[in-house]
Amino acid sequence: MRYALVAASLLALAGCQSQSGGGAGAARDQIRAVGSSTVYPFAQEAVGLFTQANPGMKAPIIESTGTGAGMKLFCAGIGSQHPDIENASRRIKKSEFEQCQANGVKEIVEVQIGLDGLAFAESTKGPGLKLTTKQVYEALAANPYGKGPNKAKTWKDIDPSLPAIAISVFGPPSTSGTRDSLAELVLTKGCESDPAMKALKDTDEAKHKQLCTQIREDGAYVDAGENDNLIVQKLIANPDAVGVFGFSFLDANRNALKDVSLNGVEAKYDTVANGSYPGARPLYLYVKKAHVAAVPGLKAYLEAFAKNWNPDGPMTKRGMVAAPEDVRKANADVVANLTVMSGADLK
């Protein structure tokens, strides 16, 4: 009976594929996930745990596409040609949720798997920068405080206390959730250090977003793609440069890199866990409930996260920061019950 139900569900997914314009084709017997490069190593850790606990089942396929690009793939529809899971280094946006709904992706399960930090780092041979969110904003904004194009060439141009070395920052592309976190957690906070910019949000939200989050395009900020390991290599080769990526990549490369503190707080496990680090952020999985019965092992793969995201568990040993106990319990319940999100509180 169980295998008959699974077979029927797989046929239903193949039918969905045909109806959605993708053409007929065989339903999948292998989990497919897309999304965040930050979540990627943790998703791969879950693959190993899943295959150990489920011998004979195919290992899930994990693609590092970036959160934004992954959301487009995830929300494109239901059916075997569409991914089952979106890995995200930020929460799904209201516009993305609505796109999912419009394309028939009606029941979405949201799981917060843990925490990460938006880390700033430099080579161990670097100048020892210590920055504030205000200084980062003034260095990277295209039009700081709406006062004209950014002409700062060196960090000293931003603040006399900083060294006279060229502003050179390697960071994520616009499709990355890490880029969204940079905008929300750092640039906007720095922008709103100016009372006029903070007040602007209430009168002209679109202009506020543009002035606070648009990054300069004159070479001071370099889009380094979705491969965070590439940024690590660029920092080693460019000791005066700064890199922006997930905390886990800094933590895994402390032999070659050192932290650039934000507002006097270093990116460490404890500061991310307790929220005192300005760049602390939650990490998520988004799952199509309609695919759970159809794709073998999908729920078991989610359980591989829920059973191993505790402090000192395999996920944290890989570099993820464990969420507080109440958050872990609530999300373990979501996995157990496949609770569907309403989307009512999205922005």
Classify the helix fraction into a percent range: 40-55%
CATH C-level label of the largest domain: Alpha Beta
Order of helices and strands: HEHEHEHEEHHEHHHEHEHEEHEHHHH
Number of helices: 16
Q: How many DSSP E strands?
A: 11
The CATH superfamily of the largest domain is: Periplasmic binding protein-like II
Q: Largest sheet, described in full? A: 9 strands, mixed
Overall CATH architecture of the largest domain = 3-Layer(aba) Sandwich
Number of domains: 2
Globally, the shape reads: globular
The average pLDDT value, as a whole number, equals 92
Distance from N terminus to C terminus (CA atoms, Å) equals 43 Å
The whole-angstrom Rg is 21 Å
Description:
There is one protein chain. It contains 16 helices and eleven strands. The protein is globular and about 60 Å long. Mean pLDDT is 92; it is low at 1-11 and 14-26. Strands 1, 2, 3, 4, 6, 7, 8, 9 and 11 form a nine-stranded mixed sheet that branches. Strands 5-10 form a two-stranded parallel sheet. Helix content is 41%, strand content 15%. It folds into two domains: 2-115 and 283-337, 3-Layer(aba) Sandwich (D-Maltodextrin-Binding Protein, domain 2); 117-280, Periplasmic binding protein-like II (D-Maltodextrin-Binding Protein, domain 2). With 347 residues, it is an alpha/beta fold. It has helices at 2-19, 40-53, 67-74, 94-102, 133-140, 155-158, 177-191, 195-203, 205-213, 228-237, 247-251, 269-273, 289-292, 298-306, 314-317, 325-337, and strands spanning 32-35, 61-62, 85-88, 108-123, 130-131, 169-171, 221-223, 242-246, 257-259, 261-262, 280-288. Helix 2 (40-53) crosses helix 14, helix 5 (133-140) packs across helix 7 (177-191) and helix 14 (298-306) packs antiparallel against helix 16. The termini are far apart.
